[in-house]
Design brief:
- This protein is an alpha+beta fold.
- It is built from 23 helices and 15 strands.
- Strand 1, helix 2 and strand 2 form a beta-alpha-beta unit.
């Protein structure tokens, strides 16, 4: 009965976290169209670091407290009943209030977005994206369960081998997972240098172990052991349990209102955090496969997009020229930093340049750089000073961004997305410098996330218009992953590449997308 209303293009739909409703309706064959407003997302655009649930928004904008859900289903988690067990009459007041509040808030927040010149960001990026994410969540992705079961056994064997090596190094057996026992072994028995003290003794966190690992083999072994255990429990053993019995695929949930820079995040499972820097971590991607054996996985990845955006913002001629000439940007930076030709650059020089390129964008100071490169603070200061001398546009961008944020209280992206920094003028040095670092990064990371969102909207609409069967399944940072039918392979390659590279113009700086095809995500990437 309601399907014709829900699908009527003449009737705009608004709601609070409307993607959830759209997803549930989709299970029943209903396409909620057109979605014109979401109060949760509007609140996020206005103030990304605040709370965006209906209770918080009602109190803030309407000075009103909604009916708590606990009055219907009970307070305690273990004694709560399900909504489906209630009489519709009992739910009606609660449900009608929800809808009423969403409409009241829409009317207020829409005006607020217009007042702050944020309406375009809402109507051209965030609201149209809801439809795309609903479809992606619904599509899900297939998982190779057998591969993961096998891989889990491999990891457990690896962990067992490491355990024996750690015992041998320590000269005794102990519980590696117990921080207390580890403290005792490292700092009392083996008398290693305790770098950091906490309330419960000496710290055994990543930072401490990484520092110790430069001279102490046991510290590196413990780091490797922890990494294996975490990988196995977070992904290898967890993913098969999340496979939906009906669709035989896993369906992650995308969140538009968590990361304050505008990046999407994902939960159950969190696919944004699969470690790819290590061989072991990236192997998890082999488990992501097409749902039908004849299909392919297509991965499309923006090439060094944040550095290209930095070039656009900073207008630094060296950086712009390197991108225009199609050079490897880290080798090009190394050649400028070390006064050598690109041919003379070795892998170590490139590694230093890469660390500096990304470090500068994230406001990494001399101390952080020294730690990452394993060099002295004096050398790190020299490298940074040299970098700013060779790339004066970048230094200027950083100074201008800090000045703009100090004056306005926020930093913004090309599309006007804002993030507020209340500590930017703080007299507390630590708070102020942390705010400065985040403010420098925000326009770059925020613009990168806006860019991929626009690309996703364009790709989704083009695929729909051409009635393609292929599926957009995942968004991970600067990468999109698709399941592609063999007969649509060439079409999809061109369609994805074109839409991603033309989603936005960065002036004279070319935007490049790398496309990979394979029988699993690892092969495609």
């Amino acid at each position: 009965m309601l399907k014709p209303i829900f699908e009527n293009q003449e009737i705009g739909k608004c709601g609070q976290n409307i993607k959830f409703d759209a997803f549930i309706l989709k299970r029943y064959g209903i396409d909620l169209e057109p979605i014109v407003f979401d109060t949760m997302i509007a609140s996020y655009i206005l103030s990304p670091d605040e709370q965006h649930n209906l209770d918080a928004l009602s109190k803030k904008w309407l000075n009103y407290t909604p009916i708590p859900i606990s009055t219907l289903i009970g307070e305690k988690k273990n004694k709560q009943i399900s909504m489906k067990d209630l009489n519709p009459q009992e739910i009606s007041d609660y449900a009608c209030e929800d809808a009423d509040l969403a409409l009241k808030l829409k009317n207020i927040l829409e005006e607020e977005l217009k007042k702050q010149n944020l309406i375009d960001l809402a109507t051209k990026i965030e609201f149209p994206l809801i439809k795309v994410l609903t479809q992606m969540e619904f599509n899900g992705i297939a998982i190779d369960k057998e591969f993961l079961n096998q891989y889990s056994l491999e990891l457990k064997k690896e962990a067992a081998d490491l355990t024996q090596k750690i015992y041998k190094e320590a000269g005794t057996e102990f519980n590696i997972d117990s921080p207390k026992q580890l403290q005792h072994i490292l700092f009392e028995k083996m008398l290693l240098n305790p770098i950091k003290k906490t309330k419960t003794g000496y710290s055994t966190d990543v930072q401490v172990l990484t520092e110790l690992a430069q001279t102490e083999p046991i510290a590196q072994m413990i780091l490797d052991y922890r990494q294996i255990m975490k990988l196995n429990s977070t992904y290898v053993e967890a993913l098969p349990k999340l496979i939906n019995k009906k669709t035989r695929r896993i369906h992650t949930t995308y969140n538009q209102t968590i990361a304050s820079t505008g990046r999407l995040s994902s939960t159950d499972p969190n696919l944004q955090n699969i470690p790819i820097r290590t061989e072991m971590g990236s192997k998890v991607r082999q488990a992501f496969i097409p749902g039908q054996p004849e299909n392919y996985i297509l991965s499309a990845d923006y090439s060094q997009i944040e550095l290209r955006i930095m070039a656009y913002y900073s207008k630094d001629e060296h950086l712009i020229k390197a991108f225009q000439d199609g050079l490897d940007i880290h080798s090009a930076t190394a050649s400028i930093l070390f006064d050598k030709t690109i041919e003379q650059i070795d892998s170590n020089m490139r590694r230093i340049a890469k660390t500096v390129n990304f470090g500068i964008m994230y406001g990494l100071g001399s101390y952080g750089l020294a730690q990452r490169l394993g060099i002295s603070r004096t050398e790190a200061i020299e490298i940074i000073n040299n970098y700013f001398k060779k790339y004066p546009g970048i230094k200027k961008y950083m100074d201008n961004t800090i000045a703009f944020t100090q004056k306005n209280g926020f930093a913004e992206t090309i599309f006007g997305r804002r993030r507020y920094f209340p500590d930017i003028n703080s007299s507390n040095y630590t708070l102020r410098t942390a705010a400065e670092r985040a403010a420098i990064n925000m326009p770059i990371q925020g613009t990168a996330s806006d860019l991929i969102k626009l690309a996703m909207i364009k790709i989704h609409n083009t695929m729909k218009k051409n009635n393609l069967k292929s599926l957009m399944m995942l968004q991970v940072h600067d990468e999109l992953v698709f399941e592609v039918f063999p007969e649509e392979l060439e079409t999809m390659k061109n369609l994805v590449k074109t839409n991603m590279e033309t989603a936005v113009s960065l002036g004279d700086i070319p935007i490049l997308v790398d496309i990979g095809i394979g029988k699993n995500w690892f092969e495609a990437h």
